[in-house]
Predict the structure.
Amino acid sequence: MIKLAQVNILRLRLPVPESLAGFVHIGDAARIHVQATGEEFTGLVVRTTGELDLATRSLQVEIDLDNQNGKLTPGMYADVTLNIQRNGNGLTIPVEAVDRSQAAPYALVVNGQGHIEKRTLRLRMETARLIEVTDGLREGERVVVANLSSFFAGEAVEPREVTMPNGKNDAGSGEEEACRSSRSAIRFSSSCFA
């Protein structure tokens, strides 16, 4: 028995969770890292199933990848980062800035007088690093991103701006990061070429 396969174009299939499915569209850019070869590729979302799988509550998304050089083979695994455009006016903040220990999620904001304010948030999309906030924050406000439990509403603080490379806080407590806006990247691990 002989099995024929077209390998000059490989199809990468990945399940997108229900919470993110509405943000993925045909034409969205993707970065692909192939685990076996260590190579990086770029591609575009070319099709979706258009509906959620009822068993997994996910949307199947497909990315076609040019393989004219034959370096990739069906069955290889890849990590995929999709660059998606979010709809609406939500801001994104680091996941470390959101406390979910109470009934409603909240963030600690440093107001113009240097005092902590506790703000209840309405959240939407979430990635490994960022959470989209649709209500409770305004663009440009500063949020505490570390040791939230050590602060209380009304406390006077001396804030410092920090950069959080790779989504990790590299400084001490009481630091904040300005809210960001509309483009996000979502990373999926271990998607398989077909």
